[in-house]
Amino acid sequence: MVLLSPLISSRAAMARAARLALLLGGLLLTGLAQAWSLDDVAKLAQQRAQTPYQPVRQAIPAELEHLDYDGLRDIRFRDDKALWRADGLPYEAKFFHVGRQNDSVRIHELSATGNKALSYKPGDFSFGKNRFQPARWGDLGHAGFRIHTPLNSPAYKDELVVFLGASYFRALGTGQRYGLSARGLAVDTAGAGGRPEEFPRFTDFWLEKPAPGAKQITLYALLDSARMTGAYRFDIRPGEQTVTEVHARVFMRAGAGPRVATLGLAPLTSMFFFGENQPRAGDFRPEVHDSDGLMIASSDGEWLWRPLQNPKAPVATSFAMKGLKGFGLMQRDRLFTSYEDTEARYEARPSAWVTPIGDWGPGRVELLQLPTPDETHDNVAAYWVPDRLPQAGESLNFAYQLAWQGDKQQRPPNGWVTQSRLGIGFNKLDAPTLAQAISYVIDFAGPALDALKDDAPVRAVVSSDSNGRVVESHAYRNPVNGQWRMTLRVQRINPAKPVELRAFLQHNNHTVSETWTTLVTP
Hints:
- This protein folds into 2 domains: 60-405, Distorted Sandwich (Beta-galactosidase, Chain A, domain 5); 416-520, Immunoglobulins (Immunoglobulin-like, Sandwich).
- The radius of gyration is 26 Å and the shape is globular.
- It is mainly beta.
- The strands form 5 sheets. It has a 15-stranded mixed sheet that branches.
- It has 6 helices and 33 strands.
- The longest helix has 25 residues, at 11-35.
């Protein structure tokens, strides 16, 4: 133990004492972090996995249950009640009020004084135009929380990350606007085995009080569902691209009915309404989406790009591989002129890139796309499905980094797609032939392509499944912007069936671009 003398008179001694007190505070917090770890949450998850599932939904007062959207939004957490504000720390936590369909969660603070439950206090909230008597509600818990930090300016603590609803969370990097979300786990998302999707939810959180000057914030979560339980640790580092490092341990619940068919790790959820590959007549905006494509990097070195769609019926596709280097739902198009939406600001919405920590083994990236009538519904999901699932009572350990990226984002090392357009310009084909043709114009950029001469022998390598026939394909440098353009036309043999296409650019038998791939739906 270090004892401080009360006879401190000089300014230098006082400064040394202040630094020592700061150091001791940091050591106390470090000691607490060692005392509470992922293993502690995993013990709780394992205990739950050995018992039958018991969904717990705290009764919500009728006046909160029947609130409309605007009424719930009018309930706001008071800034002056933010957790850790009085301590002057680089992070603060604010909480969401329960209401409508929001389930209550239990939130704890981990600090030098121990593990403290953060109970609901009506005085922490402003209820706006709502007329309630909250004193009679008791401890409702909270619906979720958000973490604030000086992300864009040292003078203001911006929202950094939000955990709200089921196992959803989303984060921001510098200058970004909220867009796509991540989840803790996806279970039978594509309706495998004819069963509806199972939505695990985080039921308990532990927020670790940060030390002064901390560069990251750490929190833990306990996950529960009918057939799964899980323990999670999130280390969140804010910046130009905010990085969320996730360490997880999930358990198969014993005796929980039908076996899980599809277990999705690091799931991402986004929205695609329309875009350059699927324009919408009557809308002044050229594109409306939170993400415009799925990017995948396999362990064998191949990079894939799948432009997203708003299909007429649900479509699930998968990309099998021996190993995964990364995948993500990306918002590549970063120009305001691509969207022309001064309110939604889609060009500022983040991409989310997942990088596995360690070897995840063989498996597949699965992409689910659903039809949506407007931009208010998420209709895209992507996640990694391992070939081997844990047996009942077993655990699955995995970890990954999730980077929320803006203008500077993950790219393939050689070349990548900058736009993918569907449609036919002026053409001399006869009408019946033209009606059967599917035409694309795809532009590529990147260092491998930029280094080539204008007359370099670049070839478009295009392949189709058995339901398509490649009629023509060309590759040439665009004289306007210097990028390389691929044009291709495919005839569909059976219009009632889909066509799978793959294409990339090749120079002297060297691949100089990622692989563009798309599914032409009936």
